[in-house]
Structure formats: structure tokens, C-alpha cells
Write a structure and sequence with these properties.
Length: about 270
Amino acid sequence: MRFAAAGFICVDYYTNLGGRCYPTGNGVDVLYNLMSMRDDIEGAVISAVGDDEYGKLLRDSFEERGIDISRLETVEGASTASFGMLLNGRDRVHAFPNKGVMDGYRFSDDAVRYAAGFDCVHVDYQSELCTRLPEIASEGAMIFFDFTKIRGNDPRAENIYPYLKAGLGSFEEDGEELRSFLRHGCERGAKIMIGTMGEKGSVAFDGERFYECGIVETEHLENTVGAGDSYFAGFISALLDGKSVPECMMSGAARASKVVSHFEPYF
């Protein structure tokens, strides 16, 4: 199963922890988790980095995991996207954003054609690939989309829903805002829409009915950043195996429970 993470990538770093840092981005986190869960995933990252130390860190990390970086562009003189993180108890706060090369980056036609050849492609709202989903889906790729910070009234979303196998958004709680978002996405063409609510669990909609799922408790909470991406990876993994929506949700909850016990948003 060929799975591409296409879109925004960056490095999260902690200045108060001796410069501790790790590669991340919604698609990267999903891909890393999937590759940890399954032996049949051939991964690729389609994005861009600068020719700095963080760019080298990302490229080296991807290569160490056997990920295809043939469409990972290195832009000379540019900085790699990075986020300075602050600790807030066990929560992490993105405090110092530097979008670097990702700010306004446009993917080449070749990169888009390459993405279209994969079985599955994860895309996020932060990249201009939002507007190129018809091309990516043209050869039958299953598209998984992260809607973090996008809601149903955002005009960008209207041209995204028709191409989705599944879309995921983050909410504070269950309610009309969440359910309207999920319902609207499926009415516009998405096969499955999911809303996660942290420790309150998740809700999914498949165009016919809503499903609810609680969390799987963890004995040790280390880092909540990446919980949504790891949930999505667990959901996708079960979906690829033909599992039902409730089974996919439980798979997502189980994966998230394991990941939040680690510092990095994957293991």
C-alpha cells in the first residue's frame, strides 16, 4: 500500500529542553504512525524544506525510515518550517511559528502527478494542494484530509469534500457545530467525516448515521500533541482492512492512547 504525506511539514523544537526537536506535520505524523502499525506501507513525503539544519534533519529522518523523498524539494536560501513549543503541563503549545519555505509554497505539476499515483494521499489545509485535489484524485487515490482550523463555513472546504475518503476535524465537544460539520462534509461528497474531542472521544458520520466512541485510557500521559494524527492513523489502518466505522474509531482511540504516552507524536 503506497501512502504519501503531501503538504505542510516542519520541525517542532523546545528551547527550554536543550533544543530537543522532532520532525512533524499532520501528514508526517499520520505516515509515521501507519508505518509503525503496518508492514505493508510504502511511504513518501511530498513537500519542501530549506537548505538548513532542520531541512537536513527532516531529510535524514525520512530516509532512516525508508520513506521516499524523491519529491521533497530543497529550496536554496530558505528556512525549513519550524515551531517553537512551550510546555503547559502535559499539553504542548505552538508558540513561535516560522512557516519558512512552506509560506506560499506552490507544488510543481510533477509533484502533483506523482501524488496522484499513490493508493492513499494525506493532505492538510495549510498547503495549496487544497486546490489540486481533483488532479490528485484523478487516478483513484484515496484522499485523507486534515481539517484542523477549517470549518464548514470556510469556502476552501467546499472544493475539498467531494474527493475525500475521510476527513478529520478537531473540536472541543460534541454538539451542533461538530455534527453539522460532519453532516455537511458527507452531503458534499466525503465518504466519512470524523470529529475528535480529545479526552471526550470522537464522533463519525458516514452519510447515514452518527457513531460515537470514547477514549482508551492511558496509564502515563506524556504529550497530547499528535493525538489527533495518531487517531487518524489508527482509523485509516482499520479502514484499509475493511473494518466498520465503529471498529475504525476504536482502532484510532487505541493508537492515540499509546502515542500520548510518548514525547514525540509517534513511536
